[in-house]
Amino acid sequence: MTSANGAGTSPGADTSSPPEAGSPALLSTRALRLAALLESVPGRTVPLPELWTLWATADPASVARPERRSDLAHAISQLAAAGLVTPSKKQDVAARPHLPVRLTLQAPDPSESAAAVARGIVWRPELSWAIRARLTIGQVEQLRTINSWLRDRGRDGDVVPLRERSLEVLGHEKALDSLLVTTVFGPDRLTLDHLRTFRTHPPLPIVRVGAGQVLLVIENDDTFHSIRTALSEGCGPVGCVAWGAGGAFEASVRSTGDLPGIERVRYFGDLDAAGLRIPRNAAETAAREDLPEVAPAHGLYRALLATAVRQGGQPPVPPDQAPNLTDWLADEILAEQSSDLLQAGIRVPQEALTLTALRSDRSWLHGL
Length: 368
Hints:
This protein is of the alpha/beta class. It folds into two domains: 29-156, no CATH class; 206-365, 3-Layer(aba) Sandwich (Dna Topoisomerase Vi A Subunit, Chain: A, domain 2), CATH 3.40.1360. The chain has 14 helices and twelve strands. A five-stranded mixed beta sheet has the order 8-10-9-11-12. α4 (110-119) packs parallel to α5 (137-152). This is DUF2220 family protein. InterPro entries: JetD_C (IPR024534).
C-alpha cells in the first residue's frame, strides 16, 4: 500500500487518519482488526489465551516484535475507551504491561458500536454514506482499508479483475466476493467502478460445428461428446456446441455474448432439480444482462423422457415448488411430466440419451 506522499507502508501498519474535530478517538488499524475478529467470537467472554490468538491474526507482524505485549495492551485500551469491550479487573501480572485475563464483549446492538467507530473516521466522498449505514465492525474495518486505498491509489493504474483488486486492497483474493453480497455494495454505496475492478466470468468451453446461429449447451461432458459426434453428421441450425460444466454455466452464461453469429442459446441437462435450476438461473442472468435468450432444447428433453431410464432416491420436490423449476421448460407436457418426476423423487440423467439414440433418431434437431 502506498501513502499519499508516495512512501511505502505495510498492509498491517497503523496509518490512521486524524479524526474530525469533535469525533470519537479513532481506533488504530490493528485495534479495528481485532474488533472485527472479536465480533465473530461465539459468546461474550474472551480469555487472554484466545485473545493472543486473535491478536496474531489482527497483527501477524507482531509475533516477532518485542513490544507485542504493549501493542495488545494499547489496542485493548482503545477498544475499552470506545465501549466495545470491558477488561476484567483481574490482571495477568507475569509481564509488563499487565493485561486483563479476559475481555467481556459489549452486549448491545453491534451495529451501534460499528456506527460509533464509523463516525470517528474521515471518509472520502465516495464512502461518506458509511456514517449513516448499518454496518458491522468487520465491514467498517474493510471500508476503512478501502478508504485509504481510494485516497492513495484509487485513480491510478489499470482496471483489473475483482480478485486481483481484492488481494491488493484487502489482503485476500476472496474478501470482495463476500462483501459484494452485502449492503456495502449498491448504486448509492460502494461500486466496482469505485475500485476500478470488474467481475470476470469463467470461459465456456465451445466447439464450432457449423454456420448456424444456435449455441447448444450441454450440462455434462459425456453427453457433450456424444452430441458433438452426432452433430458431425449434420448440425442443422447449430453453429456451436458448448459444455456447460454443471453449475458453472450459471456464471459462464455471460460468455455467450462474446460469440459472433450466435443469436439463440439452447440448453440440455439432467431432468432433476439441479439440472433444471442451472438453466433457469442462467436464463435469468441472460435476460438481466441483455444476452441471447437461454431456452430449453425441447427435442432433446422429449427424447430423454422417451427413454426407459428412471432413477429414484432423490429428495421429493414439494408440489408448490416444482413449477418454479419446470416452468422454464416452456412446454406444458414437458413441464407436467418433469414435475411428476420431481415430486416423486425421480430423476432422468441426460446420459440416458446415448450416442446410438442420437444417431438413430435425429428429430431432436428440429425446433432449435
